[in-house]
Specification:
Domain Flagellar basal-body/hook protein C-terminal: 234-279
Order of helices and strands: HEEEEEEEEEEEEEEHEEEHEEH
Family: Belongs to the flagella basal body rod proteins family.
InterPro entries: Flag_bb_rod_N, Flagellar_basal_body_rod_CS, Flagellar_FlgE/F/G, Flg_bb/hook_C_dom, FlgE/F/G-like, LlgE_F_G-like_D1
Shape: elongated
Keywords: Bacterial flagellum, Cell projection, Cilium, Flagellum
Helix content: 10-25%
Structural class: alpha+beta
Organism: Effusibacillus consociatus
Number of helices: 4
Strand content: 25-35%
Largest sheet: 6 strands, antiparallel
């Protein structure tokens, strides 16, 4: 039975990995998508001891024999490497060349009654025709460094706007350019561990209640002199998925082979158990 459980754990682990690879390949053309990967760990081993009275004459059996019990998917990691930038020519398509994130406001409140903030690398924005906010495709407002939504004044809506590499937004007015705000770039320390996906290419802090995003060192707003550490904004471009298709196909073949080995082990154990039952009968 132990071999059956070990093989079953291997099947479950490889199925998890297969699902992640399929999801990565399906999102290879999704703007701002970040590939996922599964990290495996070994299940607790079983340790056996052999009493001296059961030792065979002339044979030495080491005490503390350990037998593995299989593996499991211990952690699903997100790979936040830079994707390729693709030019679109749209004035509200923004790409980050660097490690920063756009900050957007999402529905809901935290335990302190403050609006929820999420982070994204997807820079496909548009103007809300009702309120004039710069929003994502899902309608989430883009935030400025003060944590407020960026809004275009009613008299300037529909006019050409430009966004500088440092995030400053200027709209062409009747007498020249009018500054309406700055796009906030947020740096996240160790995003693989400190961010969790919440859908729609949005990420939230793993424990958002333990810090103030405006003050804490886990996630901090970028000062002007450090803007290049967070990245530069490229207007008229989008960051594409960072999925490496050849790598995904290579891992797909490896997972299929591992799945076949574990499936064959289950079949072998089943046949052996059938033989044992027939012998007892």
């Amino acid at each position: 039975m132990r071999a059956l459980y070990t093989s079953a754990s291997g099947l479950t682990s490889q199925q998890t990995k297969l699902d992640l690879i399929a999801n990565n390949i399906a999102n290879i053309n999704t703007t701002g998508y970040k590939a996922k990967n599964a990290q495996f760990a070994e299940l607790l081993r079983s340790e056996f001891t052999q009493p001296d009275e059961f030792r065979l004459e002339g044979r030495r059996s080491d005490s503390g024999l350990r037998v593995g019990n299989g593996a499991y998917a211990a952690f699903m990691s997100q790979l936040f490497t830079q994707g390729n930038l693709q030019s679109t020519g749209s004035m509200l398509d923004l790409a980050i060349e660097g490690n920063g994130f756009f900050a957007v406001r999402i529905p809901g409140e935290d335990q302190n009654g403050e609006p929820l903030t999420a982070y994204t690398r997807t820079g496909k924005f548009q103007v809300d025709p009702i309120n004039g906010y710069i929003v994502t495709d899902a309608g989430y407002p883009l935030m400025d460094p003060n944590g407020e939504p960026i809004q275009i004044p009613e008299e300037l809506r529909g006019r050409p706007l430009s966004i500088a590499p440092n995030g400053d937004i200027a709209v062409q007015g009747d007498s020249g350019s009018v500054s309406i705000g700055t796009v906030n770039l947020v740096l996240v320390r160790n995003p693989e561990a400190n961010l969790q996906a919440v859908g729609e290419n949005l990420y939230r802090a793993v424990d958002p209640q333990r810090y103030n995003p405006l003050e804490d060192s886990l996630i901090y707003l970028v000062e002007e002199e450090d803007i290049r550490n967070a990245g530069l904004i490229r207007q008229g471009a989008l960051e594409m998925s960072n999925v490496d298709l050849p790598q995904e196909m290579t891992e797909l073949i490896q997972v299929q082979r591992a799945y076949q080995v574990n499936a064959r082990s289950v079949q072998t154990v089943d046949a052996m158990m059938g033989m044992a039952n027939n012998l007892r009968a």
